[in-house]
Structure formats: C-alpha cells, structure tokens
Design goal:
The structure is a single chain. A hairpin with a 4-residue loop joins strand 3 (about 90-95) and strand 4 (about 100-105). The protein has helices at about 1-10, 10-30, 125-135, 140-145, and strands at about 60-70, 75-85, 90-95, 100-105, 110-115, 150-155, 155-160, 165-170, 180-185, 190-200. It contains four helices and ten strands. The longest helix has 22 residues, at about 10-30.
C-alpha cells in the first residue's frame, strides 16, 4: 500500500516533465514551420511554385543532425534520409527521439504522415527542398527552377536568386566529395540558418 501511495505522489512531477517535453516539441515545430527555401507564399504574398526535385541515385541511407538557428532560438532535428533513383524517404525526429513526420516521394506522388503534435503550419516537404538545394546535382535543380529564379554554384557554395536578389546561400564547410558532411544554409527572407551535419552515410 505504501508503494502505491508513493507512486501517486510522483504523478504530478511526471506530468510536469511530460508537459515540458510536449511544449518543447511544439516550440521546435513552430520554428521549423518557417524553415524552407521555398514557402507556399513569398514574403510579398506572391505564390512561388518550387517542385521537389526528382529522386536521384545511387541508393544510400543518410542520418543527419539539422540545427535550426532563429533569432534568439535554436532547435535540433534528426533526419533519416533514404534515396535511390526511384524514391525519396525521409523521417524526422526531435532531439528527444520523438517521431515528427515521415515523407516519401517517387518523383510524382508525395505521401506525408505527420505526428498529431505538429501544427498545420509545419511542412516537412519544404525541409526536403532545403536539403535538395544543398545536395542535389546542380544541373537537375537548375532544370526545375521556376521563371525568375537562378541558381549559381562555386567550389564551396551555392547561391539562389529571385529576380536577381539573393535569397539563399549554401556554404560547404567540409570538402567531402559527393556528399559534404558539414553544410550551412542561410535563408535571408525568412531569417534563419541551418547547420546540417551528416552523422552517417551508408551506400
């Protein structure tokens, strides 16, 4: 009987811990809701159509830690990305290991399963466009860019322009061939920065 009473006394503390974790996840998802190189609407209110780039080989599995830096805030997302020439699959986890979303894309159809914890404003499909902007072959991205957009690439960077105004910088902080392990992406209109670190790469 004593053990049961003690367990009931510990319930408030447990509820506080669970509530704090839930609030942290909600704050994290609100931050990431603006983290995309291409949103459904521009800051000016004009629609922008930026399709997800097609799948690309070779077959591989990549685990990445994405740190989203916003003025006065920082949140961490773990992404598991599986790629081959036929499909893209991406799973997003909070830093605490909570599943946030699962996304698959075969080049034509996008399927998305979002956790009930996520607000409607969270759009994982825009996270994949940031990753593609950093990692997909430059010629493939240039081919699908809408009118008035321009993508330029150098040895250690990529620059995305809209109407000759720079919108996004991608800086490669490591010189790994094929899939750089340390990448920084800066989105100027939405005022956020992503630090993308590859934890594992299996081919």
């Amino acid at each position: 009987m004593t053990g049961i009473i003690q367990s009931h006394k510990s319930l408030p503390a447990l509820l506080v811990i669970m509530t704090c974790q839930f609030v942290k996840v909600l704050i994290f998802t609100c931050v990431l809701s603006g983290c995309a190189a291409f949103d459904k609407q521009e800051v000016s209110g004009q629609p922008v159509v930026m399709p997800i780039a097609p799948p690309v080989g070779p077959a591989r599995r990549i685990v990445q830690q994405i740190t989203a830096l916003w003025p006065g805030r920082q949140e961490i997302l773990v992404c598991v990305l599986e790629l081959d020439e036929r499909h893209i699959a991406m799973a997003g986890l909070s830093n605490e290991g909570l599943s946030l979303f699962n996304l698959t894309y075969d080049g034509k159809k996008l399927e998305l399963d979002k956790s009930p914890l996520l607000p409607d404003t969270m759009a994982p499909e825009f996270i994949i466009t940031d990753l593609q902007l950093a990692y997909w072959p430059i010629a493939m991205l240039q081919k699908i860019l809408p009118a008035q957009w321009r993508l330029e690439a150098g040895q250690n960077h990529r620059h995305l322009y809209y109407q000759n105004q720079k919108r996004v910088d991608v800086n490669y902080l490591s010189s790994d061939a094929g899939w750089p392990k340390d990448v920084e992406l800066i989105n100027y209109p939405y005022n956020y920065r992503l630090r993308i670190k590859t934890i594992s790469y299996t081919q």
